[in-house]
């Protein structure tokens, strides 16, 4: 039992990474911009957050710089996709390369550097006493995990129940209509791509300063940025579903790492301990599950006939003839 | 053309009515086109002012300038006596000018209320939809614009969506409302409702600019008329009561055009196409065709009339194999062709002039050659052992370029560089060159200029003479009645009735009957009503 | 109605690369390196003499094949970014022939090499089939699915080289017998002395032949016409009676097959054993950039591959080690940005003509 609680507890922390990245991408996509550069932005965030924390000894400053750096990187994509109206798929891919490349160059030698002060964690007094759920969600979690809990309902409320959220939806669904009513489509899209970048940076910093501390070049993120892009589709562009998907994938990640540790599992000899090679198949699971989740999400979208924001991936060109 | 001088002699000013809008010497240029060439326009307080002109005359451009969407190269705009300089639609709305575009500017996934609140400063942050739903309901009651505030826009009919657009402008306190071809998407009954609302608005002291190219509507609703032709004003502020249809038509077209088509008498041959009780869904999964039946014979043009969105698109797709039918069947020359594939149709001689020339009919970045072999590349001589014989293909393209007057430097040019008329000629050339036994033409003349329209009509008639069966789907009633041998009327996915057009052409009664059917009255009911009246 | 002159796209692309190199230099300087020395080093270390030129070509060979894989998929707007995984699975397929062993170690190269080619093509095609099928059947986003398949491919091969075919517990298989190596230039050094030490192998020829065949398929065959039509306007293709579903699967399989062939060529021509590190070196990703830079033209891809081979080859010795990856990223960004100039130019030309 305790083992399960431990795995789930670590899974929530790990899922927080995906949560920030997924909701960030969700914001960008809701505004009509597909940004496939999440992985690259996360790497920049992880690298810059870790190195700033290392240099200054202040992990919160690291988080701040991580968010800004990734946000800055996202604006390259914003410029290409929104202003130059180029293909968003290729531009997003380029951003992944660029983010990975820059973080590798600037993060050179970082992994050999000394230890760094990490983000603090805490237990919530009463809530952590709840049996089973308490220790999973509220015991010894990083502050960022708690921020994540608050963040999801806030994001949902913002998108669905506020004026700026309504404008965000309008810009992603029918930019020409929004434009006709004086909403600045370009500015909003830049803004939400930036927010997506900032959150991807936060996700990166969450890895390098809290969940699995350190800088291990490209292995730091290990494809989580891409899983986040997939989760947005699974989530049907809804923050709550994004949270469910993120925490589930976080738990799966931890399970794979932790299941190979103990000699005994559920009172039996742990086959994963005695056959370490099985670990390679376990490692495939998050990626295979991402594909499965995509199949489920896509089928559901077809069945319910709902789907991506209508203008997702299309540049908005103002004042074309025959408007 | 001196603006100042004309202004003083302009009857609208002379009468001393309050001026709402004065546009002087507006020039607006697009790459290669002078859309507005020193246009003057005056709108009075409390009038319905029609802006009349053909497609491409510059009406919409002028109004987009007034609505703040475009910035003119030169010219001044005065609203209520003050010079204005709009840099966005928001500025125009602040000055009381609102425009309703042909394509509604509504966000389908949002509710009516949300659409109305879009872009406003209030509510500041929290949406408080319950409160605003009431305000919207009150407003819609006041102007007789019935619509449910909580409904999502995609669930509404086209007419209801138009009401949301009007409400949006009324909510913003608009007193100058510009409507771009508002009746194009409406059934005759809905048009009546719209006219009532417009009159109610004028009674409250608002002014309306009504963009149209339909003369009879303009005569029915407008107080005054301004006519544009090729970017210039040809008649400014004519009193609608003191002018005639013929006068307006001459100002609009520039010469007396009588719709005269050289249609030879033809005896239709065998039945080529039979559509039997076909049902099909649209893209949203709603029933679009409800047991529709019709037939087309060789050597006749059969028209399908109806207001847009009553299943025409879906019917064309079912016949050409691009959409599945859920019930019923489509028979071509005795063979069932529905629910198989588009390829089966192509191989059996079905040609298709799609509604959407750039989105469906052509591949924009491919060359003219690549576009004209779209239906032929599977067969010799172009196809040889799985390869394409490019020499043959180029020769074929050049032949079509000559015989169909496709104006293009060479056949390697990508078709995205072609004008609308040229593009349509590419499609027609391709579809006719296959010597089809059935031709499904959907809106074949939409957006073309007069010369190009005549060309398309001549080609369709020559196909009729050479024995093809033609199903012509159009929203232009005049076009249907002058080209077709028979006209079916579609309403909500059903055929309301059929009208035969004899050698004498169409009659006013015929138009009335078709109009009634377009609004959902079946033919039997019309006949019954007539019979009862006669008794 | 005139297209911009033929040299214009090439000039814009070259301009984009120049801008990218300048930007990259600034970043290298920022990271504490000397950009001029780095670039000079790249040039010298890749084209300086016959030996390094041969090394450059060896490096370019896998890139060429993965870029062809990307070209054909991108042509249909299928964003296959799984060439990396398909490449690795191709190598796995070829390796399995030796390591299982399906063919005995003393088999004649005349049988060995064709069989290994087939196995590589087959495994790559299978790895392309899954995302293609999911896309066609369930409309699953192929960008993400192909990328996930990359990670799965690496784990898959890792399992085999650790658990099944390991050499002494290391992360690699034993070396292949020389019968299963692709012929190299140095094999003929006895008759042609100038070839001595040159490791350029038959994979180059395989790549060039594949490029030529692919060019003919795209521009001169019925199937290629269908692919171009679908890529330009899928709705028009449907309207022309083309089966998009089937072509989606087939093109993904062909794309995977080309990448798999690349993996086979690399493992039999260069690595000579199954080992993930030298195989999962980002060839699949570089292929994306090369394909894009070559404007999806297979023949142009040959030249561009050699340029990128040089970049990768020299990059191994440059500090910091991320430089080649970063420069690739910057080049891609500049290329996409330069597409804007291309469209802009067309607009100007058009406007001028109409007025």
Order of helices and strands of chain A: HHHHEHEHHHHHHEEHH
What's the order of the H and E elements of chain C? HHHHHHHHHHHHHH
Mean of residue pLDDT values of chain A: 88
Sheet with the most strands, sense and barrel status of chain A? 2 strands, antiparallel
Largest interface: A-C, 52 and 48 residues
Mean pLDDT of chain C: 87
Tell me the structural class of chain A. mainly alpha
- Number of DSSP-assigned strands of chain C: 0
What is the count of DSSP helices of chain C, taking H or I runs of 4+ residues?
Answer: 14
Describe the fold and architecture.
The complex is a heterotrimer of chains A (323), B (535) and C (355). Chain A contains 13 helices and four strands. With 323 residues, chain A is mainly α. Chain A has a domain at 14-119 and 135-249. In chain A, the strands form two sheets. Chain A has a two-stranded antiparallel ribbon with strand order 1-2. In chain A, a hairpin with a 2-residue loop joins β3 (264-265) and β4 (268-269). Chain B has 535 residues and is of the alpha/beta class. Chain B is built from 20 helices and 22 strands. In chain B, β17 (383-384) and β18 form a beta hairpin. Chain C is built from 14 helices and no strands. In chain C, α2 crosses α13, α3 crosses α12 and α7 packs antiparallel against α13. Chain C is globular, with a radius of gyration of 21 Å. Chains A and C meet through α3, α4, α10 and α13 of A and α1, α6, α12 and α14 of C.
Question: What distinguishing features does this structure have?
Answer:
heterotrimer; A: mainly alpha; two-stranded antiparallel sheet; two-stranded antiparallel ribbon; 4 strands; 69% helix; globular; B: 535 residues; alpha/beta; Rossmann fold; 4 domains; 20 helices
SSE topology sketch:
The complex is a heterotrimer of chains A (323), B (535) and C (355).
Chain A: H1 2-30, H2 38-56, H3 59-83, H4 88-106, E1 121-122, H5 133-138, E2 141-142, H6 143-161, H7 163-173, H8 175-180, H9 185-211, H10 224-234, H11 239-258, E3 264-265, E4 268-269, H12 271-274, H13 278-304
Antiparallel strand pairs in A: 1-2, 3-4
Chain B: H1 3-9, H2 11-14, E1 19-30, E2 33-44, E3 48-52, H3 59-66, E4 74-79, E5 82-84, H4 89-94, E6 97-100, H5 112-117, H6 129-142, H7 158-171, E7 176-180, H8 188-203, E8 207-212, H9 215-221, E9 224-229, E10 232-239, H10 245-253, E11 271-281, E12 287-297, E13 301-305, H11 312-319, E14 327-332, E15 335-336, H12 342-347, E16 350-353, H13 357-361, H14 368-372, E17 383-384, E18 387-388, H15 390-403, H16 420-433, E19 438-442, H17 450-465, E20 469-473, H18 477-483, E21 486-491, E22 494-500, H19 508-518, H20 523-534
Parallel strand pairs in B: 3-8, 3-9, 6-7, 7-8, 13-20, 13-21, 16-19, 19-20
Antiparallel strand pairs in B: 1-2, 1-4, 4-5, 9-10, 11-12, 11-14, 14-15, 17-18, 21-22
Helix pairs in contact in B: 16-17
Chain C: H1 7-30, H2 35-47, H3 50-75, H4 83-99, H5 109-138, H6 142-164, H7 203-220, H8 222-232, H9 234-239, H10 244-271, H11 276-279, H12 283-293, H13 298-315, H14 323-354
